Amino acid sequence: MKWLLLLILWPPMAQAESLVATRLIRATDVIGAGDVVAHGAPAQGAAIRPEQVIGLEARVAIYPGRPVRLSDLGPAAVIERNEIVRMVYRQGPLVILSEGRALGRGSLGEQLTVMNLASRQSVQAVVSSGGLVEVIGSSGAIWGGN
């Protein structure tokens, strides 16, 4: 009886709140500190701490008052679609540089398709910094040869 009374009177444990958007966050917007606030009950897959989302990019539109789900966010892009990038191909001591056009957006470490401007061939590359991609593969055709 004493335990039952104690359990009834014991204050409930604080539950984590979900982060919700304070404004319309459009796809490709980078989330800042004022864009989210803790509110409401926890939602499945939603972030609970601002440091989990600040600096990430929205992959979809997130409406005001809606939970900010971690699956809707990703690293911010450093290369934009149609941006001219420097392509680097490395094989042993051989290093070849060329210019290409990014055919999509990409963040650090992401793979994207790049068209070599000289040969017009498309290749897969990994974003290594803003404006620089590392070509994947060993096709000589991408550099204008056969």
From TrEMBL:
Which residues, if any, are the signal sequence? 1-16
Predominant location of this chain? periplasm
According to its UniProt record, where is this protein located? Periplasm
Q: Which GO terms describe its cellular component?
A: periplasmic space
Enumerate the UniProt keywords alphabetically.
Bacterial flagellum biogenesis, Cell projection, Cilium, Flagellum, Periplasm, Signal
Task: Kindly list the biological process annotations in GO that this record carries.
Answer: bacterial-type flagellum assembly
Question: What residues does the SAF domain cover?
Answer: 16-74
Instruction: Tell me which domain of life the UniProt entry assigns to the organism this sequence originates from.
Output: Bacteria
> Mind telling me which SMART domains this protein's record contains?
SAF
Q: Name one Pfam family in it.
A: ChapFlgA
Q: Which InterPro entries match?
A: Flagellar_FlgA (IPR039246), SAF (IPR013974), SAF_FlgA (IPR017585)
Query: Is-annotated flag, keyword Signal?
Result: yes
Q: Does the keyword Signal apply?
A: yes
Q: Which PANTHER family does its entry note?
A: FLAGELLA BASAL BODY P-RING FORMATION PROTEIN FLGA (PTHR36307:SF1)
Query: What does the sequence similarity comment in the record state about its family?
Result: Belongs to the FlgA family.
- Explain the purpose of this protein: Involved in the assembly process of the P-ring formation. It may associate with FlgF on the rod constituting a structure essential for the P-ring assembly or may act as a modulator protein for the P-ring assembly.
Annotated protein name in UniProt: Flagella basal body P-ring formation protein FlgA
Give the source species.
Roseinatronobacter thiooxidans
